[in-house]
Amino acid sequence: MSILQQSYTNFVLLIIDDGSTDRTGEILEELASRDGRIALYRRENRGLVATLNEGLSLCRTELVARMDADDIALPDRLAMQKDFMDAHPGIVVCGSDMVACESGKMLVYPRQERCPVACLFGSPLAHPTVIFRKSIVESLGGYGEEMLFAEDYDLWARIIANGLKMANIPQPLLVYREHPQVDRFAYRCRSMLTTQRIWVQQLQRLGICPTPGELDSHAYCAAPCKDIAWRQKRAHQWLEKLCACNRRERIYDQAMLEGQCADILRRFPQPVSFAKAPLFAFARLARLLIASLFHDTTALKTFLRKLRRVRK
After folding, report:
1. 3 state DSSP class of 285
2. What's the whole-number mean pLDDT along residues 207-215?
3. Which backbone phi and psi does 96 adopt, to 5 degrees?
4. Which of 165, 246, 249, 295 is the most exposed place for a label (fewest CB within 10 A)?
5. Is the distance from CB of 94 to CB of 66 less than 8 angstroms?
């Protein structure tokens, strides 16, 4: 296990066997018998969030690092993160960049000053890379039991909402396994429901109660993809609204937010052409129309008015 081969050695490795049904328990017991730093707990399955909170309560140190069992921590990960946290007592949680195991792709996360505005669109930290201050995380209620599939993102959003600071060390300290052969569509659908709840909570701080259509634009800004010009225009208008509301409410640093929005706009791909890809373009148009019909009648009426003007 890579975590047992760290250059920094003065730590306890807390492992909770969450009701495994294979030989995991036997393997862990063998490891624990050979390394006194391992504290092993075995019990019935209770799920990830319950296990995270249980692990947090069992920790006896102020600094707590976590990682997933299938990832690889680089040798100096704990040493570098502990030194960083010791040198920056105002930082509550610190993550790092990662390298994808299968592809070798570098996964880069926002730097300290950009974390709050990045969190408005998605998780600013990679959960398997983090180290945090236990007392502060516990004072915020730990991981939200009701925030399944995005419990880490919810915690980071609450840390920021309470005016606390986070950072990422600007180099990879972990090799992340993507498991591309695993179909994660159902997981992404479930996590999106929780993610939208977190978005709404953050947007309400800006004085915005987003419509389903606005949430759709927010989702597009969080992960731009090929789409028709109409959806991209709506997303652009949504970013302008965020900046205008923040100018009034002063929740985020205005320059940072405008810079984040500008970066998002640069990631918008060229819009899909009806002439070059008619089937794809009409499918995307139908998606927007159906969503507008059931959730956002104002957008639908606006589109129909424009369509009538074009026909005239």
Report:
1. helix
2. 94
3. -160, 175
4. 249
5. no
